[in-house]
Design goal:
28% helix
Length: 241
């Protein structure tokens, strides 16, 4: 069984501030290691649950964050930036290149507008106020779940902060296997578990998701599909184009 794992960074163990997320930030190099090890825990769970291979897509910012020399040796890595001729479906690019039976979301965050949400935004946070699909507010997890669904692949596991976990279970179902690695205290603060504890939760939930994957259907939007993007200001809609 082949698994596609899409990884973001805001929801990773220990990450709580923008300084963790960019190369110029304090502790970014340490946060890259936290990201890689959260991914490894999910890969271990996937393999325990029957996966033969896991393809990992680095989906944060420059998309060159995962430390490949510390990545689990059963995984392969999709990396490099999203540009007009690169990674056109961004955080899930690569799903179209093979047959996958399950998808996982690691290190994801809650959508723009989440009250008190930890590092909450939707895609380009400085521009986008809200994205809606069929009139329903959508964060990156839901948007990518629809992309996975287009290729017939269900999301079977997700992990991040508690505000994200509440969101993804509301969007994809209470039966979704999830791991909560930190408790949100506000936009840039949290109560975090140490890696040994969070990784145990991630491994167990990822394995659980794999074992129940056949009971989950891919998320498919019935046509006609209406996608609305609301920007912070009208001028930003031109900048975003």
């Amino acid at each position: 069984m082949r698994v596609f794992l899409s990884a973001d960074m805001e929801g990773v163990t220990g990450v709580c501030h923008g300084d963790h997320l960019m190369a110029s930030g304090h502790d970014y190099e340490r946060a890259r290691r936290w990201l890689t090890h959260d991914i490894n825990a999910a890969v271990e769970g996937a393999i325990a649950g029957g996966a033969s291979e896991v393809v990992v897509a680095d989906g944060h910012a420059t998309m060159r964050n995962v430390l490949i020399d510390e990545l689990h040796d059963s995984a392969r890595l999709v990396c490099g930036p999203a540009q007009p001729r690169n990674r056109r479906i961004v955080q899930v690019d690569g799903i179209e290149r093979g047959k996958y039976e399950a998808a996982m979301l690691v290190g994801y965050h809650s959508r723009a507008g989440t009250p008190g949400g930890l590092l909450s935004h939707t895609w380009v946070g400085r521009l986008v106020h809200e994205i809606r699909i069929q009139g329903r507010p959508a964060g990156e997890a839901l948007l990518n779940a629809y992309l996975f669904g287009h290729y017939g692949v269900p999301v079977v596991f997700a992990c991040g902060a508690d505000d994200f976990v509440r969101e993804v279970r509301a969007d994809l179902g209470d039966d979704l296997a999830t791991a909560t690695v930190k408790e949100t205290l506000g936009p840039t603060a949290c109560i975090a578990l140490p890696p040994a504890r969070s990784h145990a939760l991630i491994r167990a939930a990822a394995e659980q998701g794999m074992r129940q994957d056949r009971s989950r259907a891919p998320l498919v939007a019935e046509p006609p599909v209406v996608i609305e993007v609301e920007f912070h200001t009208a001028a930003m809609s031109v900048q975003g184009a």
